Amino acid sequence: MKYVINTNKRAMMVTILLFMLFMPVEAQLRFNWGNKSPLSKLQQAEIAISNLYVDSVNENKLVEDAIQGMLEKLDPHSSYTTAKETESMSESLNGNFEGIGIQFNVIADTLVVIQPVLNGPSEKVGILAGDRIVSVEDTAIAGVKMSKENMMKRLRGPKNTKVKLGVVRRGVKNVLYFTVTRDKIPLKTVDAVYMIRPQVGYIRLSSFGMTSPQEIADGLRTLKQQGMKSLILDLQQNGGGYLQSAAAIANEFLHEGDLVVYTKGRQVPRQEYRADGKGSFVTGKLVVLIDEFSASAAEIVTGAIQDQDRGIVVGRRSFGKGLVQRPIPFDDGSMIRLTVAHYYTPSGRCIQKPYRKGDLKDYEMDFENRYNHGELSNKDSIHLDSSSVYRTLRKHRLVYGGGGIMPDEFVPLDTTRYTRLFRQLSIKGIIVNEDLKYIDNHRKDLKKQYTSFEDFNKKYEIPQSLIDTILSEGNKQKIQAKDDAELKKTLPSLKIQLKALIARDLFDMNEYFQIINETDDIIQRALEVIKK
After folding, report:
1. What is the pTM of this model?
2. Which of 296, 318, 334, 347 is catalytic?
3. How far apart are CA 449 and CA 460, in angstroms?
4. How far apart are CA 43 and CA 135, in angstroms?
């Protein structure tokens, strides 16, 4: 009977809409929709604007603006994304996209292959690091001032479709042509897995995607095979992702029955996530690293580890996002991500920082406010919510809600580490661009000279010619050291950054972090904590 009633209602609505098509606009606006709901008012407003407004309007844009206007009056994390934005966001979280499988950058209007994906479509047909892709399906993409996004659009496409690429290779006179069959290309969320010290493993996770739990499990297995007894889990600058992935990753470290997180909202009943006891690292020493950009799912894992007294949290106070969004997709591929619940750490604290509905600007100024108040560099400047006090579940240590997760070991931000000269060279992209040019010119020789990362890390030194080139390019853009002292202080940071970038381009991100981490204050404190 219920099915019949719904079918009759639908048929009646179609009849009404068909009838209204032949009604004058003024009559449509006076039409009795059967109620005085806000929805009917919104429908009438759309009819009036699209039919009576003095100029033509884009109805799709009109509706999108209305949706965004409604969401802006809610919390800072309810949002609307267009079909294109939704697709891009889904790719990064779902762990794959369909394309030709290369890491690339653009140098002087030309796409240069940094690395082909291992066993990916491009590597299979013989495309090499250093190759320049100059045409796609006989359409030139080099030297025509095409945007990076446009290049990506031409290279990507559905799995099993073919694309013809024109490639210029050093030492080869004529253009080479390759036909590449597109495939699913994995997107990794784990940036680095390695033994940072004897018996101490290190894993850096950039986001919480669909593949993250398996990536973490694989990383833990690899490190245990190499003799890991203690682990540093680096969640610095991790902006979050899927709640389910966070629960699955926390499960790797917690005992059976341990509460990971629970959620509840006005229309959402309490839902708990508990560890099943099958995690692969439930007893070794564990240190979790966070900073002011660690948010959402990163805070779920950190909160569970802290509240269950499973490990030590090192770094600076986290972002403070304790809201859960539910995706609501539309037929055109766009989506609303609507906040439907709060999440709570095992001790019962919600770590969502305060916000005023509709005031997104104030919310986004939080980092600047923290910096100005001095809390990033001075623990005593941090104001914790004394009305939101909780205790950890085993050792009964004090923890606080209402504004991110406060680490057990605070590490101040070193505001003097990078000089003004270094920051300017970095912001203008001079360091990265000159690194890419250097690698492009010396890749073959460097690969021949350094057959392993270990050899490279021990012996390679940044040539003075590269330093001179960067300083010269800075000069052209009116970026100069104010005195010899600033230049002298800049050089060590510049050399470390360049060596890490070169390692990334010769090997992978894993090697980049092996170099850069040796100068990271939070990581060095974590190593001290493990040693103690």
Report:
1. 0.85
2. 296
3. 10
4. 48
As a whole number of angstroms, the distance between CA 352 and CA 303 comes to 12
To the query of whether residue 173 is one of the catalytic residues in this protein, the response is: no
Separation CA 428–CA 475 (nearest Å): 12
- Using one digit for the tens of pLDDT, what is the confidence trace for 346-356? 999 999 988 88
> What percent of the chain has a predicted confidence (pLDDT) above 90?
60
Is residue 321 flagged as an active site residue?
A: yes
Among 307, 366, 435, 440, the active-site one is 307
Per-residue pLDDT reduced to its tens digit, 455-473: 999 999 999 999 999 999 9
Distances (CA, A) of 366 to 305, 316, 361, 381: 25, 14, 9, 14
- Is 224 tagged catalytic? no
Check 321, 347, 353, 366 and give the catalytic one. Answer: 321
Q: Report all structural domains of the chain as residue ranges with CATH numbers, in order of start.
A: 20-57 (no CATH), 96-186 (2.30.42.10), 190-413 (3.90.226.10), 420-529 (no CATH)
Q: Quick one: the chain helix, strand, coil %, rounded to 5?
A: 40, 20, 35
**Residues listed for the chain:** 532
- Token reading at 332: 């055109």
pLDDT band at 425 (very low <50, low <70, confident <90, very high): very high
Nearest alpha-carbon partner for 387 in 354, 411, 339, 409? 354
Q: What is the pLDDT of residues 63-112, one digit of tens each?
A: 888 889 888 888 889 999 988 888 878 777 777 788 999 988 888 788 99
